[in-house]
Amino acid sequence: MSVCVTGLGVYAAAGATVEELMANVLAGRSAVKRIDAAPELGLAALAGAPVDKELVVPGIEAHLLRHVDRVSLMSLLAAQQALCQAGLRFDAPRYDVPVLWGCAMGGISTLDDAYYDLLSHGRKRVRPTTIPYTMPSAPAFHVAHFLNACGPSTTLSVACAASALAIAQGLIAIEREEADVVIVGGAESMMTPVALRGWQMAGAVCLADEVMPEESCRPFSADRAGFAMGEGAACLVLESERHAKARGAQVLGRVMGYGHTSDARHISRPDAAAQVLSMQQALRRSGITAEDVCYVNAHGTATTVGDVVELQSVKEALGKSSAQAVLSSTKGLHGHLIGAAGALEAIVTLEALRRGQLPGNPFLRAAEPAAEGMNLPAGVTYLLPGRHIALSNSFAFGGVNTTLALEAVSH
Amino acid sequence: MNEQQILEKLKQIAAPITGMTPDDHKADVTLTELGVDSLGMADFMFDIEDELGFNVDLAELANKGVNTLGKLAAHLATLKAA
Question: If you ran DSSP here, which 8-state letter would residue B82 be given?
Fold first, then answer.
């Protein structure tokens, strides 16, 4: 079980391209800042990594994207990059190219605007594009429509595991020979007052650090206080070995296997047993052992409970190898992109392996005691040239756990 | 605002929907021919309400055969007069 990755694309606060994202992540430069969600209410400022740039999608006439929600616009920006890097362009509908896209909440900025129109501004009608542009499946539609990828379009809406599971499903589609090329990824845009305050009330999002807001989110640090909400999209082009070879495509890395479990115990409290099983499945399906893993890109949301449970799970799943494998969460730098998190972090992981530079935990002020005996460096770890394997975890609300096993060659 | 002024305003409102300049919109060309689908039509009515203050019923337009900007301007001028 293994498929090639031939194209990558991202659009997030930490980087509008993969190069920009990796430069920032490896330098420990954080895109997190103070955000005032509904400042008129006088609530404490939160930490977040919103995309502040104007969203202009090249090559598509503006009127065709009128009122399209930003979650779809960012999806297009990431998908265009990935397809371009893969050297693919579909000038006619390709009914053999599926789109598998993760998105938890859809276009909730559009929904928020409609609420304000109807309930606060007293308008008697709501814009007719409200429903189609709010649907969680809208980003997948827009990617499929504008890229001519007209194979089966599927949206996976399993919270923070959504786009990691999209990658896993893409792997399955190629393994089953249902497709030779699959566009996978995810997007999320939850920078609305209701969403942000909802996450805050759930005890998941941190307040902005008053002195250093960029260091507000500190995964695995003893003084952690939750994640910083991120925003953006990430996309990978997956391809069968045969297809990639036949057209001479550059192979950036491989998705070797995946784990996918559901604990079905509690909608928000993580479960170690299901996480362990997810990682074990990924190892088994990839035909590798824990000793082969040099890096774990953790889900690491910097919540009080979540980080401890994940550290315990990694220790159990990797056994003695958990003392050697580098473990880090990059969410402190790019924020938590929810439905896009799995795809963005898979890209960070693959690119880190390719560059032979594993990101550290730059805001680790004092390590969480559960990390004792594990390898959580603050800075970058350099790899010797060669083939390297890593795991990327995405553990979601709703009890859905996904682990990806990824491989790349560093030079 | 008379019928001609309404027509000019409708061309401006339609421009971001069709991707054409206001002057490219001919009064006797149907909205379908301009590339406006049913969702776009509903969106257009939303913008007309915003810009001109008319609350337009799409079903009524269909019943009366109002399918061009010219006919729509004439219809709206009637509403205003009423």
Answer: -
Quick check: A128 contacting B, CB < 8 Å? yes
Cα separation of A217 and A220, whole Å? 10
Q: Is the Cβ of B46 closer than 8 Å to some Cβ of chain A? A: yes
The helices-and-strands tally (H runs, E runs) of chain B is 4, 0
Cα–Cα dist A36/A196, whole Å: 10
Give B31 to chain A, closest Cα distance, Å.
Answer: 15
Cα–Cα distance measured from residue A87 to residue A78, given in angstroms and rounded to the nearest whole number:
14
Share of chain A above pLDDT 70, in %: 100
Check the CA dihedral A176-A139-A346-A237 and report its sign: positive
| A407, amino acid identity | E
CB A189 within 8 A of CB A336: no
Per-residue pLDDT tens over the stretch A360-374: 999 998 999 999 999
pTM above 0.90, yes or no: yes
Q: In whole angstroms, how far apart are CA B22 and each of A64, A148, A151, B29, B69?
A: 17, 30, 37, 13, 11
How many angstroms separate the CA of residue A313 from the nearest CA in chain B? 49
In chain B, residues with a C-beta closer than 8 Å to the C-beta of A127 are 43, 46
Do the interacting molecules here have an ipTM over 0.85? no
Q: How far apart are CA A89 and CA A81, in angstroms?
A: 11
Q: What share of chain B is helix, strand, coil (3-state, %, to 5)?
A: 65, 0, 35
The per-residue pLDDT for range A252-282, each reduced to its tens digit, is 999 999 999 998 888 888 999 999 999 999 9
Other CB atoms closer than 10 Å to residue A190's CB: what's the count?
Answer: 24
